[in-house]
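Example with several molecule types.
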Amino acid sequence: MAAGSGGNSSGFVLTPHKLAICMLTHAYASPASASPPFRALPADARRRLALFLLDHSKACDGYLEPTLEELGQQLREAMPDVGGMLVEQLGSHLLLVSSPEELFQFFFSIRGKSIEVEGHDEHFLVEQNSLPGQFLRRCILSFNLLSFEGTCRLVTELDAYHRPALTIARGIPSDKELAVGKLSDREDEGEDGLEDENLQWGGGNLEHKLSALPSSVRNTTHELHELADPGRSGGGGVRDGGFAFAFGDAASRGENASKTSFLRTVGQVEGYLKEQAGLIEKEMRQVPMMELDANLCHLEKLAPDMPRTHYLRYLNCLHHGDYLTAMDNLHRYFDFSAGKGGMSSAGASSDASVGRFQAGLLSLGSMHAHFGHVNQAMQALNEAVRIAQQNNDDSCLVHALAALCHLLSEVGAVADSSPKNSYFGNQPSLGMQQQLLLLLRRCLQRALELKLPHLVAFSRLALAKFDLQHVRKSPSFGGLKSAGRQGTSPVEVCKALRLSPYLLSDTVSNSLSLQTGGSGNIATINQQRQTGNTSASFPAQPLSMSGGMTGGGGWSTMGGRLGPLPDSVLRLAGTSHLLRAASWELYGSAPMVRVSALVHAICYTDVASADDLSLSYVKLAQHLAASKGYSAALAALEFARRKFSMVAKSRVRAVQLQLVHDQALHRGKIKLAQVACGELSSLASPALGVDMELKTEAAFRHTRSFLASGHLDEATTSARALFSSCYKANNQLNTGLVLLLLADIHKRAGSAVTGLPYALAGLTLCQSYSLDLLQVTAMVTLAELWLDLGVSHAARALLLLYQCLPIVLGHGGLELRARTNLAVAHCHLSNPSFSVKLKPEEVLEPLHQAAVEYGILEDNALEGECHYLQALVLNTLDRKEERDEAAAAFRRCMVALNENQASELAVLPV
Amino acid sequence: MEEWRNFYENAKSMMWSAAHRVELRRAIRHLRDRGLYAAAKWAAEQLVGLPEETSRNAGPPPAPYSDSEKTKLKRPSRRKDSTTQVGPGYAGSGNLREEDEEEDDDVLLLAKAFFDMREYRRAAHALRGSTGKKAFFLRCYATYLAGEKRKEEEIIELAGPLGRSDAVNPELVGLEQELFALYSKGALDAFGSYMYGVVLHERERKADACTVLCASVNAYPWNWSAWLELQALCTDPDILPTLNLNDHWMRDFFLASVDLDLQRNSDGLARYRALYALFPRSDHILAQTATAHYNLRDFDEAEGLFEELLRSDPYRIEGMDIYSNILYVKECFAALSHLAHKSVLTDKYRPETCCIIGNYYSLKAQHEKAVVYFKRALRLNRKYLSAWTLMGHEYVEMKNTPAAIDAYRRAVDINPRDYRAWYGLGQTYEILAMPYYALYYYRRATQLRPHDARMWCAMGQCYETEQLNMHDAAIRCYRRALSNSDREGIALHKLAKLHENLGQADQAAFYYRKNLERMEADQNEGQDFVDALLFLGNYCKNKGSLEEAEKFCDRLLDYGDPAKEDAKALLREIRSVQQHTANLPSMDLEQYTP
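Resulting structure tokens for the full complex:
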């Protein structure tokens, strides 16, 4: 509009919607002074109207302004009692404005009124400096800036604005309007008799004719149209011609719905874009790709100078896996935004001269990482680091470093094996792990210097994760280098984890005060956020299975209204809890896992990304499975599945399949187990280096299925392959698991001697990584192996088992407990020096426990074994009734087991 | 016998041209009556482009085009032909003929007068009651133009802070409905379907627009505007074969033009050559041929053709921006200033004129002024591609990289097939030391011009940078450049250097030798020459072919200081080895003699 070209940089363009809001404000402030006067409202309706007006002067849901119909609808909803009446009055007032003169009159009338308010109680609302007051003043200002063409345009637009709503608002049936059209058509025919042929122009000229018609005709159509404007018919013919064109224009606008769309102000549109981006970021979005894309196309057409639409399109494509389009939009966004920047974020003018190319590289890097293009991501991120250094863009530098850290930790093995290891050409001898550690330290140091809290937190968390996963020389043996015992340091992990939330809470309060201080560099903050969010989701990644960065910008709320920092920082705080849960899981305490996950799920629901949130739900479900059995866990998962959208769902699905697999193995349904396993491995992306966790997990379960079905050779082969791949990837945790699995396979094969080395190796590994729970499992396995070696070793096995008992009973899951109990009973029974008759309870008690626990786990085979042993023991004790009971239970188990094993049914839950 | 055949050929071409002449004369009248001035202008240009009208067997046939590669075309001066001759092969458009005879009614005359005065609304209004195809078309066309005018005004009015550009021609909806009604009844004549095609194109219904326009040009092939509209729809090489076009000489013009547009320059050139035989005096063909030569980077040829064009049509502005590009590349200050001066005097407010002036200032290294003129060109025509790209170049010169990127990007957004802009984007990012980021843009440019060595060289340079250090990829790129006739010899030298740095002496020697040959042929002896000689000298010495090494070193002695010293040292070494080996064989001989 003309006002805009007149240098109105705020993007405030007077539109019919704004005019309508002005009128409503007028109706609120001084209903009596309007001509014709608005009806005075009761006090509480006034209050609601005030709220409504407040809402509308700063709304940003949707980028288009509502039509009059929608406005009326909203007004009726907000005020069921008087809304209808207000809409009607508004409609009639809008109708009154049909020429520039009336517009002038209207703005003249509200100019003075914006200050004098009749309602004394809440007059502050329409004060000059209140929001609606400012809104009014801006409207008046931009009206005064309008050129005459602009005013004409406004009148035309106004006409198009109230036209479609007219029938509804005024209650005029549409056929009546048609009749009006016919009427004027007939008049046209009287004059020239052509209009029939081209109805379109008839529609266009209708308005023209209407305005030229005698006022009597117009009064029949709109009763309220009492104005007869003598100036117009008498005014210059030139002007009239101009109107005719404009009106023809308006009519075609009226037909074409998209033409009546008026953009909100720049700020509001940006708010909308940020909101959408935030939704995509959180992966909570339910809108399918095409819909948003269509919206954005439309928006792009309306506002070609808003580069951020390209960014949103990029995000959208990214999340729907459209690589080419994402790439295209990403480049387009940064090409355009580098040039200006001044428009989208007012404070960034100083930034614009430098250009934000490094940010472009950063985003490019994270995009490649998302798609699993490790080498390209490396290239882009390294270049980002370099350019950021060159341009002294410290915050970008740190973000790039953080992204690099993540990439390295995520796909270290893959990058290691590839020949493209020359990016760190100066230190090629260093292994990937050392590089990662160095980078992390560098990142942390930088972040501390620059006081970027979320990155400090991120690096701390990443360091903690590193400590969690990697063996280092224990510092306590610093003096004796070669003799130093190797191991992870739980203390340091704990320290880092404890530190981060404190820091975070500090920054939350800091940034709040910063916000009120009104800092200018929104752009930098945005940029930080943009990548801050990226990094926010990093720490969760290794635990999670989706394996992708959420890459790029998140503005979850309008930057100006809500502080941009707290959100992402809070999210990181939540993530620290998740990491804590992970650490507890590794170090061996199921209840603590539950507590941490619970804290996250409850306290951070609103800020956490769907990724994190689904992770916490999944952890809780897994805990349920370990402590309450599978059906409870599956029910909980069903709940989670309904809660999350597509992307997060894949993780839930993965865990669901794992649980199904476990359950099937326990029940002896080999077929189902195999199907579940296959489905699980198909969830992982085929790209190399992506979804490593999921792939390992699937392979592991595959091996277990072989073991359960008795295909020991295949099981050994696949376990060996898995072991070597885990070892190569430096994935010690899984290495330990696989070692134990190998020991199990050998035990199952009946050669305990060959199984022993595996169990012992697993034990050592667990010790050095402080993986308590796994260590206990290894000890139980060891004990079982000893037991298999012969009765003479029973005492030694029992000793081992007694050592584990505290941890098993305190922290272990159902399965481990059952297994230990059964093993204890076995030890006693096979120990020749043990006499059942003397201490029956020492055998019966564990057996009973084990039977109950296996019962919950639905493991019929082992439960049956327990009952069988119970029956034997009771038989020797001559407790016949109990013996019969146990025997009956045994039979029941066996029947169930046979049924399950015979069943070929393999239906996965949907 | 030969003579007879010649005579026969002559007679045939005479007959053809006579037929064409009649067709074109008629077409010009038709087009002018309907206000299609651009098409009428084009047709008139071709009309005078026909061979001179002579008596049947006198006068030599026009020189075959292929002979005129270097020689300037000696073209007979134009004389106005007053006699009309109806050729025997004339297959007129029957339905139009009656209409020609039909007396224009008074209203139509009035409307045409309004139309000529650019009072489009009035013209449309005056015609509201008239029936008849001509009146109908003129009414639709006037309405459409009125809408276009309004649209242009609106774009300026609406240009707000968000740059709203949703202004559309408000008449399109109505026109579409009206035309559709007639179209579905089959009641549209060729001009009516042309109008319908234009409207459909504007409404973004491209497939339908193609069908309708094909129908229009099949029914009435002489409307060049319809062909141009069709060409605008052929953005993809795959669309062209799907079009259902009748065989006609106008189709050949169309196909040639499309070939040029799709950067299939050699094909286009061949087609124009064929057309030249029919229209030996056509400026259009001349200009298009020149453009094709320019696209093929055949600057001398193109320059000659443009000069020829200006001689016959000194006030021509169309296509002169390309001529100015050629003068710019060849750094012809005087000629460019002359051209700029002349076009300013002819028509100051033409985008081409502004572009020529911009080029001139750019050549004078006054980049700020150049930008001003490119901006003016863009104000005159927002979609003027080359101005965006050239402005990008200027901004690069001014070290204003963000502005340069913005300008290039706009060019790319207008036409994603503009490889110059993609290339410019890549270059700009390379200047910013972001070779990895630049690669994306070079890749896009390479996709568009897979046979352009420059693109491959640019990519190779990116891969070669110390930041990326991807020598394998760089070598592959340079090889591609080489196989696509790399004229500047960049690729050869780079390949040689790369292989040398990678320690692959044999390959390096191979490329150095090739480069040496090339430079000898071009008589271009710079630092590259010295490098090549030095390496080859060393290489041959190490390989043991001392005489060859000596030869290289001798040549090296012609050059400046550091190379000279190296050569001397090398020569000394060679001498000592030679002496050593000279002694050795004699000893061997002694040993082996019994």
